[in-house]
Amino acid sequence: MAVHRRRITPAAAIRIALILAANVAAGWFLWGLAHKPAQAARPDTAGASEPASRAGLSTPAALEKLGGGEAAANSGHARLDSIGSRIRSIVEQGRSEASRLSKGHVSAGEVHVAVHLRDPSSGAEFGIDSARAMRPASNMKIATTVAALTLLGPDWEFVTPIEARGTLEAGRLEGDLVLRASGDPLFDADGEGSVERLLAPALDELERSGLRTVSGNLVLDEGSFDNPAPPAGWPGASQRYQEFCALSGGFSANRGCLTIRVAPTSIGSAAEVAVQPAGFGLERQFSAATVASGKLSIGFDARRTGLIVRGNIPRSSPPFVGSCPVPDPVELFASVLRHELKARGISIAGATLRERNTPRGNLLARIRTPLSSYLVPINQESNNAVADQLYLATANTFLSNASRSGAEAASLAALERLHVTGDGFRQIDGSGLSDLNRVSARQLTALIQAVVCGEPRTARIYRSSLAVGGVSGTLDGRMRGAKVKGRVSAKTGFIGGTSALSGIVKTRDEGELVFSILVNYDEFGGLNSSVWKPMEDEICELLAGCEL
To answer: pLDDT tens digit string along 169-189?
Structure first.
């Protein structure tokens, strides 16, 4: 049988060759995808954007949660890299200005500035030295509050049980009245130093129980809380009289401080001095006088020997209000509680004893204060003692260990739960006052993003606790320009040689960036106000004016 061969035309040959070439190319492409090596991250010190896995959040979870993807992240990286080049210029200008104003005492090369940005919508990031563990000053309060919300939840309360150890009959307790420490700072932000409103519900419960007389002692069980003392790295003794150095313990009242109000009377007479909380328990040593004119000059100090208030107040001056820490917040709490019990007609015959791990008694009442009520004092007003009390209390509840080592362990557990690396992290106190605290800008943005992009109610509570640029808290006098006012919600920070600002900025197109700026430098007076705050504000204004 004859076989007829079909003749292949030149055009057909070309088509066949192209098809074969395409198949070969596709095969090589698919093989390459299967064997493609992981792309190396660009170095942070070059200001490049980084994958979320290096920034503290696990990459798949972060991109899935935030609605990003590879294309979105790449586009976001490019935008942030463009913004980053301008941030670098602002940072270098700040370094140069610090060197100029300090006349070389602070050289540009000795100033460490870390910046980290996150775009939650795309997962893109940008960093300058953002993995460096640095002193955060009050930006450590971010770790304190995020850890508490993560480990305890937004509805958690400080609960201080009040128990009867003995028999209560006909209004008389034959035995001791025992309170168990919760670490509550017992601080009423609107109480002008008074804690009466916070104690009232528990005292109402005691009255309903019928209690009128305690034959025994008032026992304060401090549990695992350390005795109140300055942590490592705190300012020296010359600054311990300042409110920001108030001590923390298992019990406290008015965050371990006295609030002093001095008002003028008639010329030549003693000024009117009022102190809260009532029943503070120290001898009054007042010598403040009203004068005809001159400068307001009021000094005060709380010592074990008494509360000293001295100086002059002009007749035309408005009242002066200030605060100072007491030597021991636990003793302050005991004195105030006794005063409030007496005002309710409840007397205690015995002494005040401080014990640990005492036998349980019959529950009569509880002092309860919501965690949420302390977030604004901590984040917006930067109250050190309230933050430090929360730091210890979180560990007390989560680990049953309210020591400082236990509190640091609790914070690290929160970081782990949020998939934030703990590399280099060190937390000595809850306030950031210790110069031994360490955290990176990348860790701070990861913590902020975790809470503000997390459970909606918790996110709302946390956002509303931050200071707002040009509007509230420690940022009320900053960032008042039309382009940035009201668009930055953040936590400020300053101790000697450290300046910080971390939070959230709303961009021009109503997007959001999470940011952290940390500055560590050789301490030199005035640089925070003259250089670092303006630098931070300029970066925030840049971010507020960009589009994502």
So the answer is: 999 999 999 999 999 999 999
Find, among 41, 44, 40, 39, the residue nearest to 443 by Cα. Answer: 44
Q: Which two tokens stand for residue 297?
A: 């000059």
- Rounded to whole angstroms, the Cα distance separating 311 from 170 reads 51
User: What backbone torsions phi and psi does residue 301 show, to the nearest 5 degrees?
Assistant: -160, 135
Shared domain for 218 and 119, answered yes or no, is no
Give the helix/strand (H/E) hosting 339: helix 329-343
| pLDDT, tens only, 224-259 | 999 999 999 999 999 999 999 999 999 999 999 999
What 3-state class would DSSP assign to 384?
A: helix
- The answer to the question of residue 150 being in a domain is no
Give dist(CA 515, CA 537) in Å, integer: 12
In the listed set 318, 351, 371, which residue is the last one of a domain according to the structure? 371
Q: How far is it, in rounded angstroms, from Cα 431 to Cα 335?
A: 26
* Dihedral over Cα of 140, 146, 149, 152: its sign: negative
Structural tokens at position 521: 């430098």
Which of 433, 440, 479, 533 lies closest to 114 in space, CA to CA? 440
Pair (113, 222) in one structural domain: no
User: Which residues does 150 contact at the CB level (< 8 Å), separation at least 6?
Assistant: 414, 417, 418, 450, 451
Q: Pick the closest to residue 421 from 91, 75, 131 (CA basis).
A: 131
Within 10 angstroms of residue 341's Cβ, the number of other Cβ atoms is: 20
Q: Which residues pair with 148 in a beta bridge?
A: none
CATH (domain of 308): 3.50.80.20
pLDDT band at 70 (very low <50, low <70, confident <90, very high): low
CA dihedral sign of residues 123, 127, 132, 134: negative
CA distance 229 to 28: 68
Task: Kindly state the tokens that stand for 465.
Answer: 């606790």
CATH of the domain at 83: 3.40.710
pTM of structure: 0.87
What is the DSSP secondary-structure string of 244-289?
GG----SS-SGGGEEEEEEE--STTSBPEEEEESTT--SPEEEEEE
The total number of structural domains in the chain stands at 2
354 lies in the same domain as 460: no
In SS3 terms, 36-73 reads as CCCCCCCCHHHCCCCCHHHHCCCHHHHHHHHCCCHHHH
Half-sphere exposure at residue 220, Cβ-oriented, CA atoms within 13 angstroms: 23
- Among residues 377, 414, 478, 350, the alpha carbon closest in space to that of 138 is found at 377
